[in-house]
Design brief:
The complex is a heterodimer of chains A (about 280) and B (about 240).
Chain A (H helix, E strand, L loop, with lengths): L3 H28 L6 H19 L3 H27 L5 H22 L15 E4 L2 E4 H23 L1 H11 L1 H6 L4 H26 L7 H15 L4 H21 L4 H15 L9
Antiparallel strand pairs in A: 1-2
Chain B lengths: L2 E10 L2 E11 L4 E6 L5 H9 L6 E6 L2 E2 L5 H7 L1 E3 L12 H9 L6 H14 L15 H14 L4 E5 L7 H16 L3 E5 L3 H5 L4 E6 L2 E6 L1 H6 L1 H14 L1
Parallel strand pairs in B: 3-8, 3-9, 6-7, 7-8
Antiparallel strand pairs in B: 1-2, 1-4, 4-5, 9-10
Helix pairs in contact in B: 3-4, 3-5, 4-5
């Protein structure tokens, strides 16, 4: 049995995981906050796009364009109204608050959309693929991977080449000192959360196009995101791509050996990396 | 008067860090502050910079009451400071550290970058502009601390034991730089244990003891007073 096909599928799947992870990593990098509702916000964004598609009869990609600024505003408001108040010195408070948000979102979605699993459709493209011998590359997975690379390039550019990025990194270094420089960390954090939510919208789009989702799908997205971030290294954007890819490859190769091993193989690789390199492969912090 | 403190009081529980402190700094003046450890020197800076709020008393800048302003607003109003232990943004480059400090002022970006480059040249850090701040030597960290404060375009610069831990030669370099900055019209309040460095810059000296101002005047004259010798030099001899 050839491992080349699962390897390629795994890398492409890794693109999706990197999209899950990039927003989580961004937030952790800037404010040391682990957003336990990250996966649920991905699912929420997917339902938001689904609502646009069904209610307004819009193509899914137009719904994504609508969702992106909306999610930015949601993230910004969430940070300003709730999360900024949790960021004192106690790590437990933001964990509890985001855990609570996770439960609220799941139940809210259940009420609004029922437990049926749904998906976003992009027509013919969904099943389009190129075949080379016994290897088949789906167009949507390939686009997902390319978008993941573009998102990470974009975030890297934003963080290391722009004025806003400089402020984000300085605030990550010391919220106390930036205040003396005339910068309001609460505002900076709100922008960071808004950016994270834009990435969430992109991740939600590809999640919804590639697979079914339901109101309870959030926690497992969080888990993949979290594993990808930890494998890649906390606070590193390229790390999320590497972490996502390793996780994706572990799952597809595991599944190729034995279909029951898909999830297990991913978690085992995650544990192995934690044991060997506790700070991840490309740790910055 | 550029800065005025009027009857400032501040205590943390039983510890009094400011006890009816009056202080005035004129435009362009360089004022030195000495006092034993725990005399309330750094707390006084925190009160001026807005990190601490006084229990009572008024802080004025240019005659305007700024007691209620945050540290951020006071930075914008022209109060810059350095910390005793340099605290650069460790993961940013030296140049980026300055850009962050400079950018709240608005204006065009190109001018800002040029201004920061000028400050780096001035402080002797131009060659290390792209180095990561967290990897600098102590002298360079102190220089960066100073450069970053300058990049906020202060009218009043608070220097907290900036000469501490430096070699004699390094200290001399830093003193020349501080004198130059003062010569350009930036008012300075300088807390320093290295008295000869301090006296080569400041024209007036304040001595603090347990949050109280126990002496003020021309440095040589103040140092000759018995209560200052007892409070400050006595302890310094014990330490040495």
């Amino acid at each position: 049995m050839s491992l080349l096909n699962p390897l390629i599928q795994g890398v492409l799947l890794g693109g999706l995981y990197a999209l899950y992870a990039a927003g989580l990593s961004l937030i952790f990098g800037v404010m040391r906050l682990v957003n336990l509702a990250h996966g649920d916000f991905i699912v929420l964004a997917a339902y938001l796009m689904l609502a646009c598609v069904t209610a307004l009869a819009l193509p899914a990609w137009v719904a994504l364009l609508i969702a992106m600024p909306f999610m930015f505003a949601l993230g910004w408001a969430l940070q300003r109204l709730i999360l900024n108040r949790t960021l004192k010195n106690d790590l437990l408070v933001p964990l509890l608050v985001t855990f609570g948000l996770s439960i609220i979102i799941q139940n809210g979605l259940l009420l609004a959309f029922s437990a049926d699993s749904r998906r976003l459709t992009v027509g013919e493209l969904e099943i389009a693929s190129w075949t080379f011998g016994d290897i088949s590359i789906g167009v949507v997975p390939l686009i997902t991977f390319i978008v993941a690379v573009l998102v990470i390039l974009g975030l890297t550019f934003l963080f290391y080449r722009t004025r806003l990025g400089r402020i984000l990194r300085a605030t990550a270094d010391s919220t106390e000192i930036v205040q003396i420089m005339g910068i309001d960390p609460r505002h900076v954090f709100a922008i960071a959360m808004g950016l994270s939510f834009v990435v969430i919208a992109v991740a939600a789009f590809f999640m919804g196009v590639r697979a079914n989702f339901d109101p309870a799908a959030g926690p497992s997205r969080l888990l993949y995101a979290f594993e990808a971030v930890v494998i890649g290294g906390l606070g590193s954007f390229w790390g999320t791509l590497i972490g996502g890819t390793i996780l994706g490859v572990a799952q597809t190769v595991g599944a190729a050996i034995n279909p029951e091993w898909q999830q297990l193989a991913g978690h085992v690789v995650f544990l192995a990396v934690i044991l060997a390199r506790p700070r991840g492969l490309l740790a910055r912090a | 008067m550029l800065l005025e403190l009027a009857r400032i009081n501040k205590r943390f529980g039983a510890v009094v860090v400011a006890d009816e402190v009056d202080l005035a700094v004129a435009d362009g003046e360089a004022l030195g502050i000495i006092g034993a450890n725990g005399a309330g020197k750094t707390s006084l800076f925190n009160l001026v910079a807005g990190v601490l709020k006084p229990d009572s008393g008024v802080v004025r800048l240019d005659g305007h009451d700024i007691t209620g302003l945050t540290a951020r607003a006071r930075c914008k109003a022209g109060i810059g400071r350095t910390f005793q232990v340099p605290r650069p943004f460790e993961s940013l480059s030296v140049f980026e550290n300055l850009l962050v400090a400079a950018q709240f002022g608005g204006g065009d970006h190109r001018g800002e970058a040029d201004e920061c480059a000028e400050v780096l040249r001035h402080t002797g850090l131009l060659g290390k502009a792209n180095g990561i701040a967290g990897k600098l030597t102590l002298l360079d960290r102190k220089r960066l601390e100073l450069a970053r404060a300058l990049a906020t375009r202060p009218r009043l610069l608070l220097l907290d034991e900036i000469a501490g831990g430096l070699t004699e030669a390094e200290c001399g370099e830093l003193v020349a730089l501080i004198r130059e900055i003062n010569g350009e019209g930036v008012s300075i309040i300088w807390i320093e244990h290295i008295v000869h460095a301090l006296f080569s810059v400041v024209s007036r000296l304040v001595v603090l003891e347990f949050g109280r101002k126990i002496a003020e005047g021309v440095p040589a004259e103040v140092m000759a007073r018995p209560e200052v010798r007892r409070s400050y030099l006595g302890i310094e001899e014990e330490v040495a």
